[in-house]
Amino acid sequence: MSDPAAPPGPELAPVRMHVVRPDAPALGTIVENRICTASVKSAAYVRHVAIDVAGTPLEGAFRAGQSFGVIPPGTDAQGKPHKVRLYSLASPTSGEDGRGGIVATTVKRTIDEIPETGRLYVGVASNFLCDLRPGDKVPLSGPSGKRFVLPLDPGAHDYIFVATGTGIAPFRGMVTELLASGASSRILLIAGAAYASDLLYHADFQALAAKHPNFTYHTAVSRHPGPNGEAPAYVQNRLTQLADPARAILGGERGLVYLCGVAGMELGILRSLSDVLEPVALGRYLRVKPEAGPASTWDRRMIHKEIAPTRRFFMEVY
Ligand SMILES: Cc1cc2nc3c(=O)[nH]c(=O)nc-3n(C[C@H](O)[C@H](O)[C@H](O)COP(=O)(O)OP(=O)(O)OC[C@H]3O[C@@H](n4cnc5c(N)ncnc54)[C@H](O)[C@@H]3O)c2cc1C
């Protein structure tokens, strides 16, 4: 239910949804599949996978921030066909080719040791996608998601984007799109990773920041000093350290916050925003009920209840 007291959000860019359903997928063709961590020696196996969808109903169907479905071949332990998994578009709306014919995503191989048996579990869809090579076919559905997109008038806003891990995917698309449009929007991106070697598209973002004075790129490396020797930090620590530029972006009427990545990252960012922003500015992004108490006592279960993001705060966690 919408909160009548919540400040209005921007009108969002129109999207197309579910043009292709998982039970009748479109067949894309892999055109590129490469490691996209800062180092090939990274312990996180993350790949940039680009797929040609030209000539299928998915051509030109996506907006930056939306996701597509991958339907892995084969059946699960119950003998049922594998279910669709979602992957965020890492491309701008115009795709990798400028015409919406090639879409890309950023895939982390899911690999877990099962505590009860001590055996390795290899995630179905992520490893299927990461193992594909140029020329291979991949069954796709989509687009999915209508809220996690840029506003209709992107140049009318300034942006803070916060990502952990593969949550960087939609921001690769959005930042590329905003900068290519020539908009003078201020854009601040914080990318979080466990180790500097796990940072994704790191050199690309550094190159964009060097070229565009309105775009700043910051990393938060949590288990080791950062690429420039910075002390270990989570994304929320970095946001608090960036209080001045964060206030400059979010203090006025133009600010928007986008957050994407590992479920659980939200709470730290919400607390950091409450540290950084004055109550009036904070109210544009978060509706905090009195019973929520001080930010230091907030917990995850309060999100969307006592602490509710407004329509200027976009969250996608998985
Ligand atoms: C909106 C959205 C966007 C997303 N975007 C991205 C993205 O851009 N990049 C990305 O990498 N991911 C993304 N994801 C996550 C993605 O959809 C998948 O969930 C992820 O890749 C894991 O899928 P999988 O098939 O490899 O793993 P699965 O096989 O589905 O396994 C997932 C987990 O379930 C457990 N599990 C399942 N079956 C068993 C079993 N038999 N025994 C033991 N454990 C088991 C394991 O712990 C495993 O880690 C997104 C998700 C959403 C909802």
Task: Write a brief caption for the model.
The protein is built from 7 helices and 15 strands. The chain has about 325 residues and is of the alpha/beta class.
Task: Describe this entry's structure for a reader.
The protein has 2 domains: 26-144, Beta Barrel (Elongation Factor Tu (Ef-tu), domain 3); 154-317, Nucleotide-binding domain of ferredoxin-NADP reductase (FNR) module (Rossmann fold, 3-Layer(aba) Sandwich), CATH 3.40.50. The chain is built from 7 helices and 15 strands. It has helices at 124-131, 169-180, 202-211, 235-241, 243-250, 266-276, 279-282; strands spanning 26-35, 46-52, 67-70, 85-88, 102-108, 111-113, 120-122, 137-144, 158-164, 187-193, 215-221, 255-261, 286-288, 307-309, 313-317. A 6-stranded antiparallel β-sheet has the order 4-3-8-1-2-5, with helices on one face. Strand 6 (111-113) and strand 7 form a beta hairpin. Helix 4 packs parallel to helix 6. The longest helix is centred in the middle third of the chain and has 12 residues, at 169-180. The chain is globular and about 55 Å long. Residues 67, 77, 85-88, 105-108, 110, 112, 114, 121, 123-127, 166, 169, 316, 318 line the site of flavin-adenine dinucleotide (FAD).
